[in-house]
Amino acid sequence: MENGEWRVKIPVSEIFYSIQGEGKYAGNPSVFVRVGGCNLKCPGFGKNGCDSFYAVDKKYKNSWQEMSISEIIAEIKKYLRFNPDLVITGGEPGLYFERLYPLIKWFRGNITIETNATIAPEFDKYSEYKNVAFAMSVKLSNSGEEYNKRVKKEVIENIAKNAKKSFFKFVVDKDLKEEIEDITNGVDIPVYCMPLGATKEELEKNAPFVFEFCLKNGYRYSDRIHIRLFGKKRGV
Ligand code: SF4
Q: Which protein residue has the closest C-alpha to ligand 1 atom 8?
């Protein structure tokens, strides 16, 4: 069944089927929809900025495809026989919460939205978002973004209060306890920490520290399966 809202378009960087490599649902077969565009730049993350620079930097805009919700659904349908999760990632999916809503209503399985948690959906108007797990990867000072741009406490609290399956996800390479506590304080959802690293070697170097850091602070450890197996390769 198609109606007007299924014709609304969203810039899509890539859609692929893989195993979720990190966070609460690590190991789950998942279809990933990566939207293009982000409201942050994260210049602190290496020479390209963030590790999904091709979904953020306007230089790569030509590689994004304006896709209608119908077209996105047609792609997802190719993998439904595997009973996958749906993961909407970016870039920043929050830029498109309203346009993405028909997709959220349509999909019958577990949905994760990977977000920097600076934008919240209108939960009262778009109530299906309450069943979504928001993987809140709030940016820390190592992102190079100003505090006021990257930490929106009211947005974090709103998401955690309305979408109960949500969790925090931080990339760690040193003792960032103070920063993590500042962000998570008073928000009662799980905190996952995972090792920084764009390659297997970097990941393995940081993993023992993050393991101890989680033990010491009562955080949950998450590995990053796709980096361990594939390094920087895209679409895996
Ligand atoms: S918020 Fe995420 S997607 Fe956006 S620039 Fe930073 S790391 Fe990249």
A: 50
Q: What is the span of the domain harbouring residue 164?
A: 4-193
Mean pLDDT across the stretch 215-234? 92
Number of domains the chain contains: 1
- Taking only the tens place, the pLDDT of each residue in 13-29 is 999 999 999 999 999 99
Amino acid code (one letter) for 138? V
Q: For the residues of 166-210, what is the DSSP string, one character each?
A: -EEEEEESS--HHHHHHHHTT--S-EEEEE--SSHHHHHHHHHHH
Which among 141, 130, 94 is positioned nearest to 114, based on CA atoms?
Answer: 94
Ligand 1: list residues with CB < 6 Å.
38, 40-42, 49-50, 52, 56, 90-92, 116, 139, 143
Tell me, what's the pLDDT at 1?
Answer: 47
Ligand 1 centroid – CA 211 distance (Å): 24
- Claim: this prediction has a pTM higher than 0.85: yes
Q: What is the CATH number of the domain that holds 79?
A: 3.20.20.70
Q: What is residue 44's predicted lDDT score, i.e. its pLDDT?
A: 84
> Would you say residue 145 lies in a domain?
yes
The per-residue DSSP string of 22-52 comes to SSTTTT-EEEEEEE---S---TTSSTTSSTT
Establish if 104 belongs to a structural domain.
yes
Q: Is 210 left (phi over 0), alpha (psi -120 to 50) or beta?
A: alpha
